[in-house]
Write a structure and sequence with these properties.
heterodimer; A: alpha+beta; three-stranded antiparallel sheet; 31% strand; B: mainly alpha; 6 helices; globular
């Protein structure tokens, strides 16, 4: 164990010989920049870039920002469907239909997810693709 | 028949060309080889950029312009050889390589007394990743969510710049002893 520690120490001595104070400054700046941007980015892009698109019989009737808590009602052929947005997520509160499938789906929040209330012809979709398009090498 | 030698002896001129060609060949090999390895982490951007050691070397021994040219040619020819040419990824790599080479040249010229090679290398790696992110944003996907990746890319740039910089210093120290 102490041998391993000694080897680590020797390695560090070698490495630190190669570093100037300017290098340490650059390292600190980059580390600081990386950690400083984490909360800022989360706050800015978490919900604001996401929308829920509400369609009635295929036509877009509402575009809801997930950043804003709200409740809307869509009137379809079978009755009223109430949609709730809260904390960056969206769900169907009430909708006509015997099986209540879209209500039982609960909250959705990720791009690519969708809620479908078939009896009332209402669909709620969060557009976007969470996958990776290309990897740069 | 004597080539234009810019005031150098023809022998020196020729040696410099040969050295440049050899360095470029090495750079392409490193670039392609690195692309063949499975990524250490399943994330884009997590790459060491070993061929940047050769860019540093070229700038120190042959000149800044030659180093920038090497970075450009390495990305272009390397992507043709590895079969990723003209794909979005290759364009990102080209833009990143060029911007990074320019920043490395500038910081070698103006910042090297306070900075060492490691610091220069980290600056180059950060520029490389940031340029890729910016190009990806403006050319391909204009969604803010892309910038989620900024802290991750910064961190990877730090690690890869540190590692390549340390290798470079170690290497050049050995060369000095000869």
């Amino acid at each position: 164990m102490s041998q391993r520690l000694e080897a680590l120490h020797a390695f560090w001595r070698t490495v630190s010989r190669y570093l100037t104070w300017g290098d340490y400054l650059v390292i600190a700046l980059v580390l600081g920049g990386a950690s400083a941007t984490i909360p800022w980015l989360q706050g800015t892009f978490e919900a604001s870039g996401r929308w829920a698109i509400v369609r009635l019989e295929g036509q877009i009737v509402h575009k809801l920002s997930l950043a804003q808590d709200q409740e809307i009602t869509v009137i379809g052929p079978a009755g009223e469907t109430t949609i709730q947005v809260q904390g960056g997520r969206v769900r169907v509160l009430r909708s006509p239909g015997a099986q209540e499938i879209c209500m039982r789906q609960g909250w959705i929040h990720q791009p690519g997810q969708a809620l479908i209330c078939l009896p009332n012809r209402v669909t709620i979709e969060i557009p976007g693709d969470s996958g990776i398009d290309a990897i740069s090498r | 028949m004597t080539p234009y030698t810019r005031g150098e002896l023809p022998e020196v001129w020729l040696l410099k060309r040969i050295l440049f060609a050899a360095l470029l060949a090495l750079g392409i090999v490193l670039y392609v080889l690195e692309g063949l390895f499975p990524p250490l982490l399943p994330l884009p951007g997590a790459k060491l950029g070993l061929s940047n050691i050769l860019v540093l070397f070229t700038m120190l021994f042959l000149g800044y312009k030659e180093g920038i040219l090497l970075a450009l040619a390495r990305s272009l020819l390397g992507s043709f050889i590895s079969g990723t040419a003209l794909a979005p990824g290759a364009l990102l790599s080209l833009a990143g390589g060029l911007a990074s080479a320019i920043v490395v040249a500038l910081s070698l010229r103006f910042l090297t007394p306070p900075l060492g090679l490691v610091g220069v290398s980290i600056l180059g790696a950060v520029t490389h990743n940031m340029t890729q992110l910016a190009v990806a944003y403006f050319l391909f996907v204009q969604i803010g969510g892309l910038f989620y990746y900024l802290p991750v890319l910064l961190f990877f740039a730090l690690v890869s710049g540190l590692v390549t910089g340390l290798i470079a210093v170690y290497l050049f120290e050995r060369l000095d002893h000869r």
